[in-house]
Predict the structure.
Amino acid sequence: MEFDQAIATASATLQVHGHRPLTDLEIDLLRGAWEQLTYEQIAEASGYSLNYLQRDFGPKFWRRLSQVYGCKVNKVNARAVLTRKAEEPRMRALETDRVLSPPSPLPSPPHLVGRQPEWEALCQWGEGLWQPQAVDTARPVMVLTGEPGMGKTRLLEELSALAQGHQAQVLWGSGFAAERMRPYGIWVDALRSASLEVMADWPAELGFLLPELGQPSQTLPDPSHLFDAVVQLLTGLAQRSPLLLVLDDLQWLDEASSALLHYAVRVLRPLPIWVAGSARQGELAANRAVADGLRSLRREQRLHTLELQPLTAAQIGDLLAQAKNSPPAICSTPEVEQVFTASGGNPLLALEIARSQGQTQGGAASLLEALIRDRLEQLAPPTRELLPWLAALGRSFQPATVAQVTDCSTGQLLGAIEQLEQQSMIRPSTLRLRVDRPSLDSYDFAHGIIRQVVYQQIAAPRRQLIHRQIAQRLHQQAPQDETLASDIAYHASLGGDHALAAAAAVMAAEHSLKLFAYGEALHQAQRGLAHCQHLDRPTGLLVQTQLLRVCALAGCSGAAAAPLEAKAQQLMQEAKRLGLTEAEAGALEILLILQFEGNNYRKVHQHSLRAAEVGRLASPLTTARMLAYSGSCLAEIGRDMPRAEALLLEAQSLANRAGIEPCDIASGLGCVHRHYGRYDQARQYLQQAWRLAQAQQDHWREASCLSYLAMTELEAGSPAAALPYGREIAAVGAHMSEESSTAATAQALAALAHYHLQTPKAAADLDQGIAALQQADAKRTLAYLLRSAAEVDLSRDRPDLALRRAELALEQAQTLNHPSEIAHSWAVVVQSAIAAGNLNRARDEFDAFYPRLSLYDLSLPAQIAVTQTIDQIRPYQPAWYATPPTSQFIQPDP
């Protein structure tokens, strides 16, 4: 769309709504927005002051346009909004033509040799793209399979072109072997193949994947928001016209992209959206995430696969004849027989072999390598020099990136790209199939085999230097760009730049954690650890702690936690010996994470005190973070509460001066207030901690804050208020590792709230919640749940059931060595035994625990329960009241 047309439409729209036409200055401002100029450039061109345009005139004008158009308009999205509004009459006309036009016959197959059956199957599957009356909501996902070079991508391209010819929309994304660590990479490519104007009013979460939309690149509170944003965009596109989503090379999808694909296919089922893809069958099985996702679609009868077989000798003859623009070849001729035998019926391989005459020796792979080498020799020297850089960047590359990482001039780069296109070595990227998107800013190698052969021709030393320069240049251009971190780590690793590879791996792993892409996070961490041995020891120790922390947060538990704990212990001792307080503090944090997840509160207490001590010797930021973490851990396990509160307040003072807001401070103070029964303050701090955890993408802390909020409401006598937190915990748990106990915690706390409220089936749900916690080995939550349920049973005159549950709760609490939970469970045991008439059992339990009680060390609910127990047993044990409780309840930790 031209600027003048958009301006004419905008001016007319303003007049229709009772506004004056556009002034010259307003047109200048819109022209600058259209051409993506800065306010400084617009001011210089218009002759007005920057301050006037940016602070006075501009905001008023954008508000007026926003009111007229009914959506937010600003300098960033003005072009997209104006274009979309100007095209609305044409889009309505197209929709009318589509409804009124009669169904068209099945399209004729393109010039695809030997693929007519597959083409007809594709056309039948996608019939609704050109015949809206044929839309089938039960339509499965179509996946073409076969070895490289069989024509999968070519068939998808023909289908896309046919769909576009019938006014259908096409989004195209490709997977790449070198980018499996880039979360949502294929979706980013696919969404970028849509016009920016159609995304002007779509969810802000898309700005995380597509910064060019003008949205701030910010972390997401929950990956489900990102999933819903993508689905909302696809829904909006499908409401305009039928949509074909093509995902090429599915075997290289990352785990996050596979999950989004399954979600989108399931949710978008009723809409006119067709999803087609291609995959290499052999490599598909090696990608567990994608294989599991496709297997799930197959079980749901939502997947149809079409395997491409090798061509016959006769079809190879026809293919060669078509390539030479000559009459059909005879399959018995020596040339055809030779090519057929060497290629094994692979179309791409056959065409490459046919480019050279007289090739009769060697296997197909070696022959293809020789043929491509011959084609490389025909290129101009500057092009040959540039080609290794393109191959090192991957199957797809952008000229802007090539210019960044090489010393090639713009003229040389454009000349080389032109020659490579002429030689059919590269082609415009399939990400830009849209006819309304003429700016082609990405290129692909014509086939992965070509790129692979070119890459293998690079001598190993030169290959290493190329990758090293790519990594260093990318890092120089965007040192804090998390989306580039995995690329930088990949190239730095191949380039032997161990320091950069390790640092980029830390950033890439933490970025993957924010996206809930745990598999990618662990892979990046492992890759980064391999480089630490090449670093100087102080740097290597610090980087190792950062990477191992990612492993701990990514769900390292069970048998995998033991070696990680041993490694953290080793790093802590070495860091202590070398006086590296930052690394020692990092290792202690890993141990705290592992011990807390493993419910080993003895060690959590020890490590928390040590972490606070070490933290005071580190940098101010580390000091604030470690004091906060130590105090929070002590508060959460109910140990040494005065010390915990003092550490948290000290951390809060340091954090305020440093301008940071650690989530652990609010979380820890919330637990302190809950311990003392100050529930209003506890809610305030825990809700603040929850918001911070969401903003920081700390899903582990988010789940724990929600659990404490639910428990706070239960203890405050508001079980109905605990139910929404249970649902929030379940939503977070759905995106955490299978080993996490979060899902079981959500189920159990919701069941306990319903048990308080006496809702139907509450008892059965509670039993299931107890079983889920037992299976997840969540001892702490299990002790809380059993004891709380026992109190409900006791209040409703079910003393026998209360006694059984309280005994189990006491057993779990003693295993954890949690003072308040032990005292509270013990008190319920004694009260239940009295209520059941089992006075001997009550006296025995009282005699065993009462001498070691210290009410001062217990939480307020535990103190109340102990006091009630003393009052109830007084008629049966009067002699005890001459002996006050001792200063401690349990034996001190060794």
User: Anything to note?
Assistant: Confidence is low (pLDDT under 50) at residues 91-110, 357-362, 431-440, 886-894. DSSP finds 42 helices and eight strands in the chain.
